[in-house]
Amino acid sequence: MSKRSAEDSITSSNGHSAAKTSASDLPPTTSVADTGDDVEMGEFEDPYGDDFESDGEIIELDSADEDDESEPQGIEQLEAKERQQEEPQETIYLPHKSKPLGPDEVLEADPSVYEMLHNVNLPWPCLTVDILPDSLGNERRTYPASLYVTTATQASKNKDNELITMKLSSLAKTLVKDDDDVDEEEEDSDNEDVDPIMESETIPLKYTTNRVRVSPHAQQTGEYLTATMSENGEVYIYDLSSQYKAFDTPGFMIPKTAKRPTHTIRNHGNVEGYGLDWSPLINTGSLLTGDCTGRVHLTTRTTSSWSTDKTPFFASQASIEDIQWSTAEQTVFATAGTDGYVRIWDTRSKKHKPAISVVASQSDVNVISWCDKINYLLASGHDDGTWGVWDLRNFNGKEKPTPVAHYDFHKSPVTSISFNPHDESIVAVSSEDNTVTLWDLAVEADDEEISQQRREAQELHDIPPQLLFVHWQRDVKDVRWHKQIPGCLVSTGGDGLNIWKTISV
What we know:
Shape: globular
Keywords: Nucleus, Repeat, WD repeat
WD repeats: 313-355, 407-441
CATH architecture of the domain at 94-135 and 212-502: 7 Propeller
InterPro entries: Glutamate-rich_WD_repeat, Histone-bd_RBBP4-like_N, WD40/YVTN_repeat-like_dom_sf, WD40_repeat_CS, WD40_repeat_dom_sf, WD40_rpt
Oligomer: single chain
CATH superfamily of the domain at 94-135 and 212-502: YVTN repeat-like/Quinoprotein amine dehydrogenase
Main location: nucleus
Domain Histone-binding protein RBBP4-like N-terminal: 104-171
């Protein structure tokens, strides 16, 4: 098992190099032999002292205007003026307003607004990521941090695809603070001089994986059931408990059987899909899978094997883009479709039809998230860049209910949405505009501090006051909250994984 340092991609966005003048910018001088006569000192004193003095012509530095009869400027004044002209004006980058980045341009992160920020480079882009529950404890807030994740690649050739399981450890705190503000004991414990470490185990795959999800009960059951939705239409279920054990047990050899799926779901035929979710309430294993023809299959675990219902849940031929189990009721789940509908289903229905269907968007509904703490709240992200939060109690008898919150900040399709498991008012949203935004729905629009900030910065005038933070990541696709490290997120994009935590959450 190989170990290597994961690259830390933190770069300050505030640092600018001061412009330096060249030798040609200095005023020319004329050498004059020492005549012994006292010559009155000119405006510029010889830096080498009084050994030599010049009675030659005094040459004034060029000013901006040749007709300007003001006193000649000194070199320090000219350097300051050049720096002022060359340094770009600092502005707030807004993905929907600012000039698009060039092909070779990237945004640099400001370390003062991150508590932690690390980047993991991968051999291929990954469309999806999930976090493995671990036994390191809950509510972890100390550093260096450790976490376990799994992702799957989108390689240029099918035979090069892999399911990658990683342990990321020694993740240091990156928050920039003044020495006076940091307690010495906290500084010693939080900022240990160690390099981040990445350990990985891979399983070869034959196809690109559209979505990967890990059972939330892995920590309790000891089985790290992981499902992958492949573009060939098959769903593979792996048990990654051997890979997890190998990270923390020196000399442990992963058996060959652990690199093969324990079960394969073929009920979708050769139709690919994106909908995939494990039940948070059934710890034996209950999995929902949805495909691009609108079919949803339920797979449950029996005492000896897995069983998939032959009759799918079906409402229309619109693609099922996302599936979410209810966080409160074992038999209830929701789906998001390309027809703009969010549907609520009950697995006990003999007709396999939705109980409630509502229009959530005039465009595709790409992703949904069921709130962990308030089980009647459901968030949805749409193809037109908008997203909203719904109160399911308002769904009764209404095909077009009004969302309790609705935002159109993003102008590109929303690719992922997720409620913070520790705070029901915080939502993470990723978009094809290369950003992940964090929102606080508890913020009031008439807050005095918000109003003051809008008056001081013109760019903030039409920004929703609930917007907390904007994180830039190229081609970001999926974002997940770490349930055991409050405020920590893992996002995947074209340049690998970002593990980050802001000072805002």
